[in-house]
Amino acid sequence: MKLYYHSPIGIIELKGDEKGLQSCSFVKKKKEAEKSEMKSWLENTPESLKEAWQQLDEYFKGQRQSFSVKLNLSGTEFQKKVWQELQKIPFGQTKSYREIAEACGHPGAFRAVGGANYRNPVVIIVPCHRVIGADGSLTGFGAGLWRKKWLLEHEKKYGSNYRRLKPGKKSK
């Protein structure tokens, strides 16, 4: 099942079932999202999708700083470990790829952390946007560095202990 959330930085597609949210990603093509204009809360819509939609809405309104939606993620054991560490990064704060690698018990695996970050199936909810370069630069974000910057600035408005960012490398 799918639901779409129209955020200030693009349309987000939510996929999941009764076991939990499986995917939360930005839609590149608007056609399908427009066709599927939110059919209100259909009776057969899984709770995880309804909750994810509601929690994203609260996040973008500045009313939510953490997510509690049930997740049903597919990935390697290492990826899942990285995603668990990402969820520990407080709202409005950032960590480097190296810090995440160290927290996972693999201090030299910062590039592998970048790969796991890139494969994160639930952006924002598992906050891969909070991972930055060791020098404070914005690096890597599959949805575009401009979105990463927007999300971090959004959280800066409502969080504390925010690490100053340097301009990042261009994203594809």
Notes on the structure:
- The chain is of the alpha+beta class.
- The protein has two domains: 59 residues, no CATH class; 82 residues, Orthogonal Bundle (Arc Repressor Mutant, subunit A).
- The chain contains six helices and five strands, in the order βββαααβααβα.
- The strands form two sheets. The chain has a three-stranded antiparallel sheet with strand order 1-2-3, with helices on one face.
- A hairpin with a 2-residue loop joins β2 and β3.
- α3 packs across α5.
- The radius of gyration is 16 Å and the shape is globular.
- The chain starts with a strand and ends in a 14-residue tail after the last helix.
- The relative contact order is 0.15.
- The C terminus is likely disordered.
Provide a short characterization of the protein structure.
This protein has helices at residues 30-35, 47-60, 77-86, 97-103, 110-118, 145-158; strands at 2-7, 10-17, 20-26, 95-96, 131-132.
